[in-house]
Amino acid sequence: MAATTPGALKPLIAVCQVTSTPDKEQNFASCSRLIREAAQRGACIVFLPEAFDFIGSNTEETLSMSETLEGEQIHRYASLARECGIWQSLGGFHERGSNWESTRRIYNCHLLLNPQGHLMGTYRKTHLCDVELEGRVSLKERNFTNPGLEIVPPISTPAGKVGLAICYDLRFPEMSLALTQEGAEILTYPSAFTVTTGSAHWEVLLRARAIETQCYVVAAAQTGKNHERRSSYGHSMVVDPWGCVIAQCQEGLGLCYAEIDLAYLHRVRQEMPVAAHRRADLYGRVAALRNPPAP
Ligand SMILES: O=C(O)CNC(=O)[C@H](CS)NC(=O)CCC(=O)C(=O)O
């Protein structure tokens, strides 16, 4: 097993941090520059944040700029994959699904492309972010997004088995446990966290998910001013299965890199086998909790 051979080359991953605006051309220029840089540096997979394609300044603009998976945007990323020979996690594409005509809402879709530009996985965000913190944060994702219907099984990549999630999903440990039970070694949370919630919760949540699941956690993030009324927290990072932050982006646009050491992951799991210690016989009532009635 290559992963356990001492001194074996460990796969390098790259995490992108960008400031998407309503300008799709400019966003593609920024992302493609970072992807090329990651490939040149030898990364086998590059992770882009939620809304890497654009952040609209209002609902109408967001809907009008959305595309299908067969559209121009994804074609360009598929060509880039072939040109650079790199895997891409495109974490949160504004997707017009097959029900666009009837719903006039989109999906927040996380795509995984292989170096041939083939779509190896799609996950549509299941936990939508509808949050109102008076005077500070107002997000109404449900106004323009349909919730995804399922969690998808982790996908094999040269860095390990990748479990797909998006941003606000990070707050639901049930999902990270489900993905881990399905074999995930790397959990991905491409995000566009607000500054208010990010400064309070971001790193704590990412490290908690890594410690609980004993997975690598990869979180590419939006940073800076996306438009007049929206700023993002940044702090893209990689956390190892022991909960240690092993890479983090600086302020502004950029990349950070980490080596994935699956032998280390298996050692952590072997030495502290929390998965085997789980008391599934006790959690039934909690796991089966329904949404409480509205106040
Ligand atoms: O709207 C788009 O174009 C892209 N999507 C987003 O920015 C999403 C939904 S509004 N943002 C979040 O989920 C922030 C979560 C967050 O900040 C938290 O959980 O604290």
The termini sit apart by 54 Å
Strand content: 25-35%
What structural category characterises the helix and strand content?
alpha/beta
> How would a crystallographer describe the biggest sheet?
6 strands, mixed
CATH C-level class is Alpha Beta
By CATH, the superfamily comes out as: Carbon-nitrogen hydrolase
Measured as a percent range, the helix fraction is: 25-40%
Bound molecules: N-(4-carboxy-4-oxobutanoyl)-L-cysteinylglycine
Succession of helices and strands = EHEHHEHEEEEEEHEHEEEEEEHHH
User: What characteristic shape results from the CA principal axes?
Assistant: globular
> Would you tell me the overall average pLDDT?
95
Task: Pick out the low-confidence regions.
Answer: none
Number of strands: 16
Figure out the total of helices: 9
Q: How many structural domains?
A: 1
Using only CA atoms, what is the Rg?
Answer: 18 Å
The CATH architecture designation is 4-Layer Sandwich
Give a brief description.
With 295 residues, the protein is α/β, with parallel strands linked by helices. It contains nine helices and 16 strands.
